[in-house]
Amino acid sequence: xxxxxxxxxxxxxxxxxxxxxxxxxxxxxxxxxxxxxxxxxxxxxxxxxxxxxxxxxxxxxxxxxxxxxxxxxxxxxxxxxxxxxxxxxxxxxxxxxxxxxxxxxxxxxxxxxxxxxxxxxxxxxxxxxxxxxxxxxxxxxxxxxxxxxxxxxxxxxxxxxxxxxxxxxxxxxxxxxxxxxxxxxxxxxxxxxxxxxxxxxxxxxxxxxxxxxxxxxxxxxxxxxxxxxxxxxxxxxxxxxxxxxxxxxxxxxxxxxxxxxxxxxxxxxxxxxxxxxxxxxxxxxxxxxxxxxxxxxxxxxxxxxxxxxxxxxxxxxxxxxxxxxxxxxxxxxxxxxxxxxxxxxxxxxxxxxxxxxxxxxxxxxxxxxxxxxxxxxxxxxxxxxxxxxxxxxxxxxxxxxxxxxxxxxxxxxxxxxxxxxxxxxxxx
Amino acid sequence: xxxxxxxxxxxxxxxxxxxxxxxxxxxxxxxxxxxxxxxxxxxxxxxxxxxxxxxxxxxxxxxxxxxxxxxxxxxxxxxxxxxxxxxxxxxxxxxxxxxxxxxxxxxxxxxxxxxxxxxxxxxxxxxxxxxxxxxxxxxxxxxxxxxxxxxxxxxxxxxxxxxxxxxxxxxxxxxxxxxxxxxxxxxxxxxxxxxxxxxxxxxxxxxxxxxxxxxxxxxxxxxxxxxxxxxxxxxxxxxxxxxxxxxxxxxxxxxxxxxxxxxxxxxxxxxxxxxxxxxxxxxxxxxxxxxxxxxxxxxxxxxxxxxxxxxxxxxxxxxxxxxxxxxxxxxxxxxxxxxxxxxxxxxxxxxxxxxxxxxxxxxxxxxxxxxxxxxxxxxxxxxxxxxxxxxxxxxxxxxxxxxxxxxxxxxxxxxxxxxxxxxxxxxxxxxxxxxxxxxxxxxxxxxxxxxxxxxxxxxxxxxxxxxxxxxxxxxxxxxxxxxxxxxxxxxxxxxxxxxxxxxxxxxxxx
Lengths: 428, 510
Description:
- The structure holds two protein chains of two kinds.
- Chain A is mainly alpha-helical.
- Chain A folds into two domains: 287 residues, no CATH class; 89 residues, no CATH class.
- Chain A is 71% helix and 2% strand.
- A two-stranded antiparallel ribbon of chain A has the order 1-2.
- The radius of gyration of chain A is 23 Å and the shape is globular.
- Chain A starts with 12 loop residues before the first helix and ends with a helix.
- Chain B is α/β, with parallel strands linked by helices.
- Chain B has three domains: 237 residues, Rossmann fold (3-Layer(aba) Sandwich), CATH 3.40.50; 151 residues, P-loop containing nucleotide triphosphate hydrolases (Rossmann fold); 78 residues, no CATH class.
- Chain B has 17 helices and 24 strands.
- In chain B, the strands form six sheets. In chain B, strands 6-9-10-3-11-12 form a six-stranded mixed beta sheet, sandwiched between helices. In chain B, strands 18-21-22-15-23-24 form a six-stranded mixed beta sheet, with helices on both faces.
- In chain B, helix 4 crosses helix 5 and helix 13 packs across helix 14.
- Chains A and B meet through helix 1, helix 10 and helix 11 of A and strand 2, helix 1, helix 10, helix 11 and strand 20 of B.
């Protein structure tokens, strides 16, 4: 009762609505903006403390390649956490899938089935099946997800190690497969040389001298930025056409400009190195897909409703059991993809692949503002959360901070982010 | 002449953007039962939170004078130390702890942190005796009914040497019998000299026990009535600011052919598999007709409705559901919704709403297909739908982006109703549609029901308030112990007739 607004005469509502929405657009998005600003602040901080190494093209590529699997799995974990569950098994499943892929490609005589593409597809299906197996108990028998996936974590780590025959690693993996993690998109347009590289007296070019741009990357980047701006403007127009106030124009312009500038800067950095990493492209496509699913599709809406109040969702005609199962199948597929990315980056399958990564993934989602109670959380938040963790890892490593202390810092950041959230919520 | 024990002077409390209380005055004399009434959102609970220190001194303006001294409570502990104890609407007991453990929770008889269980249980027994509850202090809270839990809450309050007992809607979830017992207990306390403040929607209860009534409307004190001036009509007039000669909107029934029919419906208990909860029920509803289901608490009405609605309750369900004469499959909620059946729950917070999401998303949840194409939601259409229903059902909120958890009970109920109206059902089952909401909002809900009936929908209303059923329905089924024990046109029905059917039915069931 305390929070109910005074009963206003109905006639006034239309006039009241405009300024209110302007204010609420800012406050509701404050967290998202705050998170992105925090990421930028952290990046700038490490840019200085690492003497400019962080933003070096080669390091940016490394950063993406090292952290992509966390972000890929965080996309699935976001849905799991929003629906009110948790999945502790993702690190072990990733490790197991990596081992499975390596065995299929290197050890087992599978003939044409050891082709990297075929193996990858089979591995994704196996991941989905693992998700289904765990999700079945959670959805249809109401066994707490914490317990089911804790069991999964033990089981799949064990199978992973057994498959690799104790402590040994299996490799090397074929180059075609490794391209998933360490490859760059081919330059179909052809490079543009702005400054020709210096040639030394011995007739050899000096590494890193000159400036050649990877034009396919530049073109893709421009298309992405233009699409971003176009869809932003279109949504605004649509709102206005229907007579609804969108967020304030100045805010929109600043947001779009800052976002575009940042994106173009990163694209330029990648283009001046070897182009877009393949894994960044994969990640970008997946992020867009999950943003769309959670924001615009009915299934996304249903997941949020189920996490917010499962009984009410059920009584609204939502098949919560099937939905839970699907969330875990999705998680399984993305864990498998994460496992493939890890294996491709290492060039081999090792027994400890993905060990402990479930905690990084879960931390990314919570730093991104998801609620442990379910029903609340954004894809972009989880992605930014993942990058915050990644940049801190990378920056602290370059600075030479001891791994032990890196953990302490990451723990404090997680705690701080959640305290900030709770404090904000109570104030509102 | 009794002295004034509590005086609240010019209390003003502002929340961002909203003035919840403005210059409210409340004066309570020692030894009286003082009722505070008002619509939901009028500010009663806010006032009590100010009094008990939930909103600490400094966050509001005005003075609180208790027992002759001005008090500035920093928190609930301060007010409890002075003997002001509040029992909230939602019970605050720990279900898996015993009665004794709950009563002395945070206040245990202990030395150096070691609990003296004998002393606790002895004190508990004495307290339970005072409230007339015959239970072993070791019984777990989860094993006793809501009525008894309410008594445990009161015993807990008594353990704190209470001088002023505040009860916020104490009978909201109690049966008629338990409510009576509770009110008797209040009167007994009064004889022993205790002062209480009773916040209630149920005017007949206020009428029965209160010595004085203070009416609050829109955050202001309207008037305080003395015992001789208290009457339901007078209170209602003062609560809503207009005279409510007719509590039910007028309506011209236009009743057509039978639309919805249930034949020989039987349901067994979900846990105790041998217990039959619903025993072969037959009902039918015509187009444009409002049919009531009367009965006491525990008659099986909600169980019946929920088992019909996609088997959301019970097991071993048998029977037939016919829509316009054709048997239909309602074995899942989505199938029932597809066939045009909607069920509006009696417990909107647990079963009706996603409280951490806003109005817009709640309204479209049961019919996302209606605002999407190829599973992609059209944001603009959804917004238009939400605004449309907000207007139609008169939901009071700053915008459709307000969280439903922040709405008052009446407005939450309108959101749940909107959700099901947007699903466009032919048959609408409303379970206690006006529970816990105020007189003004009730009238609005009745108006919506009347309009739906005139649009040709078949409506079933389950209600424990017999005057409500008599006021808004065309025909009434009486249910008892899982059976239909009577059926009568509303025009010929009366509270006595319904009660007689129930009593006769009990004889039959035995």
